[in-house]
Design the sequence.
């Protein structure tokens, strides 16, 4: 496009900052980005780290409205319980045709559309934190008034954060249980591997290094075109070997079932939060 759109981030916690970092790493011009935060100290930190305009609510009570008023794309990253109030606050100052993107888990499109002026273009996303390294996965679902060109604009902006997929909104909770929460599962596994390694006699620092680098390397292999997790696992699992012994224990204790139950709990909790948000409206 001849001129890059103006992007405003309302709230810049870990998820919105991850997206911000991915977008900037993809070459998006810093002078077209504004972010808002509550505290002046956090604003100063983000200015130094990213070189963008950051407005602090503690210094300017109109910070969110001012950032929203100039935005072509508004990325809302406040906690789910605060999304409705935020959209109600900034809705009256939005540009005609502005696109509002939510990264808040469990906040449905219907709630967002109800909080904004009629006909507002709304897109719901489910990103994950590897976005800041350009290795994230973001699923998006478009609202009833979101034009195809607007959806494509958001897709192109988020491309700097990693893979972007479009799904029906009813699949967002399932997506969240896989990729949204998924990095935490990998970190949990790394913690467990490192602890077990130390218990087997390794220096704790070495065990942490081995676990982290092993998971990072395995992830890189999975990211190769045509990679298949089951085939990669089988290639490492020699008959009657050490890896087969470990996999046998995992299977005997139903690790796949444990993982499935945990992911189901994540999806169910997301649905519960949606219900709570709707009940509060």
Sequence:
């Amino acid at each position: 496009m001849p001129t890059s759109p103006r992007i405003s981030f309302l709230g810049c916690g870990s998820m919105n900052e991850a997206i911000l970092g991915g977008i900037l790493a993809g070459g998006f011009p810093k002078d077209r980005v504004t972010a808002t935060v509550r505290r002046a100290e956090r604003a100063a930190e983000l200015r130094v780290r990213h070189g963008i305009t950051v407005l602090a609510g503690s210094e300017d009570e109109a910070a969110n409205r001012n950032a929203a008023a100039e935005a072509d794309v508004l990325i809302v990253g406040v906690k789910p319980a605060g999304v409705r109030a935020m959209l109600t606050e900034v809705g009256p100052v939005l540009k005609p045709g502005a696109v509002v993107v939510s990264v808040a888990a469990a906040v449905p499109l219907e709630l967002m559309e109800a909080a904004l002026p009629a006909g507002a273009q709304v897109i719901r996303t489910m990103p994950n934190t590897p976005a800041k390294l350009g290795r994230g996965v973001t699923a998006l679902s478009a609202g009833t008034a979101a034009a195809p060109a607007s959806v494509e604009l958001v897709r192109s902006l988020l491309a700097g954060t990693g893979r972007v997929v479009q799904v029906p909104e009813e699949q967002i909770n399932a997506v969240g249980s896989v990729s949204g929460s998924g990095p935490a599962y990998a970190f949990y596994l790394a913690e467990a591997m490192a602890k077990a390694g130390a218990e087997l006699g390794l220096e704790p620092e070495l065990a942490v290094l081995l676990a982290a680098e092993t998971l990072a390397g395995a992830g890189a292999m999975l990211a190769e075109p045509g990679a298949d997790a089951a085939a990669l696992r089988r290639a490492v699992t020699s008959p009657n070997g050490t890896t087969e012994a470990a996999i046998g224990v995992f299977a005997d204790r139903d690790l796949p079932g444990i993982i499935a139950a945990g992911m189901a709990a994540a999806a169910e909790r997301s649905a519960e939060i949606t219900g709570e948000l709707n009940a509060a409206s």
Notes: The chain has a mean pLDDT of 95. The CA atoms of residues 128 and 179 lie 7 Å apart.
